[in-house]
Design brief:
Layout: H1 2-31, H2 34-37, E1 46-53, E2 56-63, E3 68-72, E4 77-78, H3 85-98, E5 106-108, E6 118-125, E7 128-135, H4 136-139, H5 147-168
Antiparallel strand pairs: 1-2, 1-6, 2-3, 3-4, 5-7, 6-7
């Protein structure tokens, strides 16, 4: 019985550590500056896309240098996918595309997680961070003004998932 309880105690601790790591990574992300990232910005130098689900939130981070990371508020994720060609290219594409949407964003100095069913974008610019959000069901439609940005973020996620699948095999 003690071994059984120890097993579940270890699982619980690992889950708690994963959740704590998520909050640590997210805080580092929003505290990042272009200098810390080693980026000389022309305009938008980073994009964060977060979606709220019943179980928690998913965070996608893409930087102008091709950095591509994805992590989950319930623990786990993929860090360093931008070392691979396809996620790197998709992350750069997302950041370049984001520059066309800044007029649809407003300044942000707080970074709450999205509600369930909501997708929230953050653009990192030399002047500060900008935000816009919409219900995922709405933004996933071609008629939504942020649809192209949403689809570019989905492309980064797809490339990260492909790298993860390849590594698992």
């Amino acid at each position: 019985m003690a071994g059984f309880l120890s097993f579940f105690g270890n699982l619980f601790r690992r889950k708690q550590q994963g959740i704590a790591r998520y909050w640590e990574l997210r805080a580092q992300l929003f505290a990042m500056t272009p200098a810390k990232a080693g980026i000389t910005p022309d305009g938008v130098w980073g994009v964060v896309v977060e979606t709220g689900y019943a179980a928690g939130s998913a965070t996608l981070a893409a930087l102008a240098d091709g950095t591509a990371n994805m992590y989950f508020s319930i623990g786990g994720g993929v860090v360093g996918a931008g070392r691979y060609e396809r996620p790197n290219a998709a992350a750069k594409k997302l950041v370049r595309l984001a520059a066309d949407f800044t007029d649809q964003f407003k300044p942000a100095d707080v970074f709450p997680l999205p509600q369930q069913g909501e997708t929230r974008f953050y653009l990192f610019t030399p002047a500060g961070k900008l935000t816009a959000s919409a219900r995922e069901a709405a933004i996933a439609k071609e008629t939504h003004p942020l649809f192209p940005l949403f689809m570019a973020a989905r492309e980064v996620i797809t490339e990260i998932q492909a790298i993860s699948e390849t590594k698992r095999k």
